[in-house]
Amino acid sequence: MNTEAFCTWLRAIRDKHISRREFSKIYPWHENTIKGYDKDRLPDVDYLYAVHQVSGYPFWDIIEKRLSAGILDLKPGDLKLSFQPTSAAKLASKSNLYKMADDSMEPTVRIYALYEFDENEKEFSEGKLYAFRIRQNITIRRVQFDLTGNILLTADNKKYETLTVKKEEVKQLDILGKVVMVNNPM
User: Taking the CB of the first residue and of the last residue of the chain, which one, N or C, has fewer CB atoms within 10 A?
Assistant: First the structure.
């Protein structure tokens, strides 16, 4: 794979999830730098990792492709690195990575922040953040309990009201999972 082919391939992965402009708002690369990466400039490993974060594309696969486009012209069979992806690394392709669409959790989770949730962790722990689907929108709320056992879904931004869910109605909530990672824009 040559440099231009790699750049085109990587851009296609990123563009499926986020535009160049939005990417430059979240990460520290200027839009013109990203434009070079999109065309004919080989990006550094930090940029590759950021693309992995927004796309969920396996980082190891991106690294292999990048090395095949580099000056060493390595082929996948030539790669003899000590790192081998674990099963956990392969789970990235099944990522639950989202971009925060509102300011309801400011300042903890800023607008346009990337966050990931674990869909296997749906049992509430007080004070923790969880992703929910509310009226077709995915958002985050902090979970608290009142004295009667009701669930309080609070926003860290005080201009948003707390949602009270009666304990008998909890099963009707569309709980996506516990928030396990937040990457706020700079």
Answer: C
